[in-house]
Amino acid sequence: MAFKSVAVFLACFVVLASSQVPRIPRKKPANPPARTIADSERDAEITNTCPEDGFFADAEQCDKYYECRNGQIIEKLCPDGMVFNDYSPQEEKCDLPFNIDCSQRPKLQTPIPSLNCPRQNGYFSHDDPKECKIFYYCVDGKFNMITCPDGLVYNEKTGICTWPDEAKKKGCGAADVFAFDCPAVNETFGLTHPRYADPDDCQFFYVCINGNTPRRSGCKLGQAFDDVSKKCEWARKVPECADWYKGQLTDAELEALENPPTPKPKPAGSPSRRKPMRPVKGKQAEVEE
């Protein structure tokens, strides 16, 4: 009977002791969004506790991130078309997708399209897949049309203009952009990147990378590509292109381009434009002998 009384007493003591342990209240996120049970479990590491003050990327959605301040958690979204750059927890920065690797968190918010802008912000291809060098830069749903320089096409992977063989866009390869095919090269000839004159434009020529991938390049104004010497020469020295600039440049203008005026040498002993140095207070200025 005494044993039973002792057991009851110990049980009551354990219950009373456990009830005295203080519980640390868990703060709820400020303005918490509606979340499913699966979402809460998946993002528990961030949404339930803050590792530290700062900004942290979502585990699955590239344009979602969290701000932690004094234990408070706020869920945020980048502007449509931008993604969160998580290079530093102390920086709140949304960036273009070309600059961020989103392969591990590929989900994005629902797009808000407008004219020529699949999303509100970013760089986007022309609607016509055969239009290789025109693309759009969108800000807040308003677009600006940009055209790549001749010989380059818009690269959807980098958001800039590049060579057709680098962009690898269907319908915009080198054969589609240039009306030129690299001739077969005899490997014993020793030219890794042979050059060929543009058949339609004296100022331009093609460089065939590794003998098979054409890239268009050009000479400066007043010059033409000499297919014999394989370099740029003044147009009047290339027989088949001697009159190429006729009607565009006068003989005097061509002469000025070929023979620019020689800059006059500065006269010796010319005064310096530098301001004289002020002597340091309390010290006498040194005089060169």
Give your account of this protein's structure.
By secondary structure, the protein is of the alpha+beta class. Residues 1-45 and 285-289 have low confidence and may be disordered. It has a three-stranded antiparallel β-sheet, with no helix packed on it. Strands 6-7-8 form a three-stranded antiparallel β-sheet, with no helix packed on it. A hairpin with a 4-residue loop joins β14 and β15 (231-234). It folds into three domains: 25-109, Antimicrobial Protein, Tachycitin, Chain A, CATH 2.170.140; 122-171, Chitin binding domain (Antimicrobial Protein, Tachycitin, Chain A); 187-258, Antimicrobial Protein, Tachycitin, Chain A (Beta Complex), CATH 2.170.140. The protein starts with a helix and ends in a 31-residue tail after the last helix. It has helices at 2-19, 37-42, 44-47, 164-167, 174-177, 251-258, and strands at 54-57, 64-69, 72-77, 83-84, 94-95, 122-125, 134-139, 142-147, 153-155, 160-162, 195-197, 204-209, 213-218, 223-226, 231-234. The longest helix has 18 residues, at 2-19.
Report the sheet-strand fraction.
15-25%
CATH class of the largest domain: Mainly Beta
What's the helical proportion of residues? 10-25%
Structure summary, number of beta strands: 15
State the low-pLDDT regions, or none. 1-45, 285-289
